[in-house]
Amino acid sequence: MEQLIENSKPPYIVLMLSGLAQILLWGGSYFLLSVLSGPIMQETGWSYQQVYGCLSLALLISGLLLPGIGKMIQQSEKNVILHYTGIVMGIGLIMIGLAKSYLLFVLGWVVIGVGMGMGLYDALFASLGKLYGTKAKKVIVWVTLIASLAPSVSWPFTSFLLQQSGWRHTCFALAGILMIVIYPVHKYIFQPTIKTATVAPSANVAFRSKIFYLLLANFTIGAIITTGVVVHLIDILSAKKIGMSTILFIVAFLGPSQSAARTLELMMANRSAVEMAFISTFAMLLGIGLLFFHPSLATIGIIIFGVGNGMRSVLRGTLPLAIYGPEHYPLVIGRLARMPLIAQAAAPFIGGFMIQQFGTTIYLCSLCALLLINLVLIWNIKSYELQLQKSQLR
């Protein structure tokens, strides 16, 4: 098997361009309905579930495709998967903008789901890991730090386009930006690299190991908790008898605290990925605990949760890299992404059902229980990692 030679330290232009591309891609997909859902429902008469169900469908499709995408990134010298992400997403946005029927609207989101699988974090991490090898950890942290600005940048920009030209032309404008910008940016970043022949162990070994399933369970639970809190945060805070103006003030801290987590990652660069996973999970547990116990602590709870969740986004890329190394990294990332994205697609519906049937108190208790399970999983990951290290030293 052939393996790519690790590149030298990435230039800052690569970090900036990668982050910019992620802001555009996230803004044209995951964060799109936060601004456009109201006008879409008002014009078409489609329900909230119909509109947001399409985003869940897109997440589901991206999760199903990612193992195959990871394999293609692993095996491709030119790594053209990311090159065409903007074009694919742009086609989906055009279909949404043209949609007079709900079927075409759904099909547009199917296409966007394909683009999300091709170019959001998981595919990007896989590509950066292949390109920079063990040096990719710092690149991933920097890129996610820049990309964390996606809602802060995309929501005002999309709102501006909406006010100027309506939701359909907003979709067309975003499609044009993605089609024009993403291809040359990714083509510049992911250029073909020099190759040398080496013998690599079978990739199937990585997917039959205990540590793979520990990581898979950890990432899946993390996705459920993140989506479950973010999507239902206003409902959770409302149940605590907090006024809407105060809720909006509290929620505003979520984005900046997630960005601060990326800065914290850079400051704690000497910490291992597993140690950072402990800190991240404990912070999320503490944040939800504060939400649970007293409304007056809700702002602090959201900030602490946001810091933990921001770390989790980085760990999706750095933890598998630390455990498996760069050799099979694209394949591992692709395989690890499927279940978390499927869980992320299902979480809003499961969370909504639990809140309606049992209330927010039981819901928050369930999330805390899942985080405790994640702490146990991370402890097992650490133990298994130490065993692997000892066996390699013998």
Tag the structure with descriptive keywords:
394 residues, mainly alpha, Growth Hormone, Chain: A, 2 domains, two-stranded antiparallel sheet, globular
CATH superfamily of the largest domain: MFS general substrate transporter like domains
> Which structural class is indicated by helix and strand composition?
mainly alpha
Tally of strands:
2
CATH architecture annotation name of the largest domain: Up-down Bundle
Helix content: over 70%
Domains, number = 2
Q: Write down the CATH class of the largest domain.
A: Mainly Alpha
| Low-confidence sequence ranges | 1-6, 194-202
- From the alpha-carbon coordinates, what is the Rg to the nearest angstrom? 21 Å
Q: Sheet bearing the most strands, described?
A: 2 strands, antiparallel
Give the CA-based shape. Answer: globular
H and E order:
EHHHHHHHHEHHHHHHHH
Characterise this structure.
The chain contains 16 helices and 2 strands. The chain has 2 domains: 2-197, MFS general substrate transporter like domains (Growth Hormone, Chain: A), CATH 1.20.1250; 204-393, MFS general substrate transporter like domains (Growth Hormone, Chain: A). The two termini are 26 Å apart. Helix 2 packs across helix 8 (150-189). The radius of gyration is 21 Å and the shape is globular. Strands 1-2 form a two-stranded antiparallel sheet. Helices cover 82% and strands 2% of the residues. The longest helix is centred in the middle third of the chain and has 40 residues, at 150-189. It is mostly helical and 394 residues long.
